[in-house]
Design a protein that fits this description.
This protein is an alpha/beta fold. Helix content is 41%, strand content 20%. It has one domain (58-236): Vaccinia Virus protein VP39 (Rossmann fold), CATH 3.40.50.150. The protein is built from nine helices and seven strands; from the N terminus they run αααβαβαβαβαβααββ. A seven-stranded mixed β-sheet has the order 3-2-1-4-5-7-6, sandwiched between helices. A hairpin with a 2-residue loop joins strand 6 and strand 7.
Length: 237
């Protein structure tokens, strides 16, 4: 739900100061001013996003709440789940009550050790290993593979997804949404160097691009959601 606001807004002192200070940049060309303001917006957006994770508890962050809400619609009590690139295990632990078993794997051993320390649920296992070596060692397919904020880090996401297809019945994909704000398209047009969500991303997916990739792999998109700057897709093989 959005907000209903009074027509007359309370005056913001800092906004007024910044708006007046911006006029000092009229000595720059229109393109340079445009680039500058786009960069400033990116910087403050990034700072606000980082601060949000200090303000909210992990389980109460709006982004995390929405992810769990979306997943709960599709996960079943008899599902065996693999969370690839589970990081510190926050999502792994939060969805454990809704499934039969969940295994979180990550290549970072320190992160896995920290996740193990937090885990008290017998349905959860954290393993330091290569995800595909783990899958090849399993006699049976897992029901669900979770790829939360992983594909954007992969050089060849199509090849990565293709490796998953024979090992699961469902894939959940969550990545940042390039189209979360129209300013990203402006940055793309002017060739801005600040046009990424994180510095280690090699992909920033827009909605059509990601869905076309899944269609190429003959994945069926059962459910989709675009909220909080995140693309969420629940797919069947």
């Amino acid at each position: 739900m959005g907000l209903k606001l009074d027509r007359h807004k309370r005056r913001s002192l800092i906004l007024s100061i910044i708006y007046r200070a911006a006029k000092l940049f009229r000595i720059l060309s229109p393109k340079k001013r445009f680039e500058l303001f786009l960069d400033l917006e990116w910087i403050f957006d990034r700072l606000a996003h980082e601060e949000s994770f200090k303000y909210y508890d992990q389980q109460k962050h709006p982004i995390r709440i929405q992810t769990i809400k979306f997943l709960k619609k599709h996960l079943k009590e008899n599902h065996n789940v693999l969370d690839i690139g589970c990081n510190n295990g926050d999502i792994t632990l939060q969805i454990a009550p809704f499934v039969n078993k969940i295994t979180g794997v990550d290549y970072n051993q320190n992160i896995i050790e920290n996740a193990k320390k937090k885990n008290v649920n017998p349905k959860v296992e954290f393993i330091h290993c290569d995800a595909f070596e783990f899958l090849q060692d399993q006699k049976n397919k897992v029901d669900v593979v979770i790829l939360s904020h992983l594909l954007e880090h992969i050089d060849d996401p199509k090849a990565f997804l293709n490796k998953c297809l024979n090992h699961t019945s469902y894939i959940y994909i969550e990545v940042p949404d390039f189209e979360k704000i129209y300013l990203n398209n402006y940055r793309k047009d002017i060739g801005s160097s600040l046009n990424y969500t994180d510095s280690d991303h090699v992909w920033e997916f827009d909605r059509e691009e990601l869905e076309n990739l899944l269609i190429e792999l003959k994945l069926k998109i059962i459910d989709r959601e675009f909220r909080h700057g995140i693309i969420k897709l629940w797919c069947s093989i």
